[in-house]
Write a structure and sequence with these properties.
Strand order of the largest sheet: 1-2
Strand content: 5-15%
Helix content: 55-70%
Structural class: mainly alpha
Order of helices and strands: EEHHHHH
Number of helices: 5
């Protein structure tokens, strides 16, 4: 068994005991999220510097309202994902983002194929309820 430090959407942390395989998959997911956040931060810093030096980089063809809606929807989805159980979230992300099948996910997390399927279906059902 291993212990992971889970960060909730409101910022507080909690230690949870999980299997070694689950801890590895969770660490991979956290690393991926960290790298994405780092890239976004660098991109924003780069854009800020460009704007400070007088460069106008606005795209006249881009609809600002649509961009704001996409950003808000992304935030809603991120919050909804954090309302799933740890196993539901990891199974959902491995299936949707990494495009692994139930068998591959089961092997990675030490779970049976039908268990993985149940976690995935329950995650989808919960996300639909949260996002409606």
């Amino acid at each position: 068994m291993a212990v992971i430090k889970y960060r909730f959407w409101d910022g507080h942390h909690e230690e949870i005991e999980v299997t070694e395989e689950f801890a590895v998959a969770y660490a991979e997911m956290e690393r991926s999220e960290h790298l994405t956040e780092r890239k976004e931060t660098r991109r924003h810093q780069s854009l800020d510097k460009s704007l400070e030096h007088g460069f106008d980089i606005a795209d006249p063809h881009e609809n600002i309202a649509e961009r704001i809606e996409r950003r808000e929807l992304s935030e809603e989805i991120r919050k909804a994902l954090h309302k799933l159980t740890d196993k539901q979230r990891i199974v959902f992300l491995l299936y949707v983002v990494d495009e692994l099948n139930y068998r591959e996910i089961g092997e990675k997390l030490g779970l049976g194929t039908y268990t993985v399927r149940d976690y995935f279906y329950n995650a989808v059902k919960k996300l639909k309820n949260i996002l409606q």
